[in-house]
């Protein structure tokens, strides 16, 4: 995978939200990652860990009046996406970099037909294309996501379609311009398991057909194990572990990752009480000093209360921000 071209790279990304003149919340801190062509990078963590903020930063969709980026770069095609103009960013969105949102019903405009919105996504990036050519591209995209009778769907409004059908439409819209990178922010959360499996299979097939890079955000370990080539685990706005997916699940090196895996039922689950991670993710206003996981961690040391451990390579391609868990397990 490392031999493939780098599509996007984030370097030491930090994101702040200004609440008022006296309060700034640190939503993401010093996060770095790389996505290669044809690769799926999974971003894993509980709600409130900074996953969505990180992805929204790529397309600069965080509220501009309250969001600042105190440090870091997001590099695509040799450009820092945090520094290009609004016009350049609009040309990239939906064309070279596309996004599928968690709630398709709120992502679609109920006052316009599906066809109106799909044709707009084509013609805004292809100025010279004819109306009929745009129509044909939309029908082809809907056929690729296995939607029967695409003409009828294009004449429908979003409120007339099921959640699973709408999510297929969103995938078709995202893929219609053959983007280099597709960002999926928990796209299967609102779907039942049968439709969820169909959508995941569809996304894998489209990735193989177009060699598209994917960033897949979720808190569902079952989904991430099926979709991702590599996983990045976030907690408290920081990256705490990154590894190839199989290695991460077989040999977690951070106590938060281990806690997530231990709390997930497996195929041989006997009905016994599942393990849990005590406490909950702290709000940004109450984030502890040092390691953000220190108040929930069974391997806590006094150094964790004041110092954020560095991310170190514990094995080939496997990085962890906890120097104490491995030592205690070995002992």
Task: Lay out the secondary structure.
Layout: E1 6-20, E2 23-36, E3 40-44, H1 51-58, E4 67-76, E5 79-80, H2 86-92, E6 97-100, H3 104-107, H4 114-123, H5 131-144, H6 150-154, H7 163-175, E7 181-185, H8 193-210, E8 213-218, H9 221-227, E9 230-235, E10 238-244, H10 245-250, H11 255-262, E11 312-315, E12 318-320, H12 325-330
Parallel strand pairs: 3-8, 3-9, 6-7, 7-8
Antiparallel strand pairs: 1-2, 1-4, 4-5, 9-10, 10-12, 11-12
Helix pairs in contact: 4-5, 5-7, 7-8
Folded structure, characterized:
There is one protein chain. The chain is α/β, with parallel strands linked by helices. It is about 30% helix and about 25% strand. It has twelve helices and twelve strands. It has helices at about 50-60, 85-90, 105, 115-125, 130-145, 150-155, 165-175, 195-210, 220-225, 245-250, 255-260, 325-330, and strands at about 5-20, 25-35, 40-45, 65-75, 80, 95-100, 180-185, 215-220, 230-235, 240-245, 310-315, 320. α4 (about 115-125) crosses α5 (about 130-145) and α7 packs parallel to α8 (about 195-210). The chain is globular. The mean pLDDT is about 90.
- Whole-number radius of gyration? 21 Å
Structural class: alpha/beta
Give the count of helical stretches. 12
Average pLDDT confidence is 89
Given as residue ranges, the uncertain stretches (5+ residues, pLDDT < 50) are none
Distance between the termini: 35 Å
- What's the overall geometry? globular
Strand order of the largest sheet: 6-7-8-3-9-10-12-11
Order of helices and strands: EEEHEEHEHHHHHEHEHEEHHEEH
Strand content: 15-25%
* Percent of residues in helices: 25-40%
Number of strands: 12
Specify the biggest β-sheet.
Answer: 8 strands, mixed
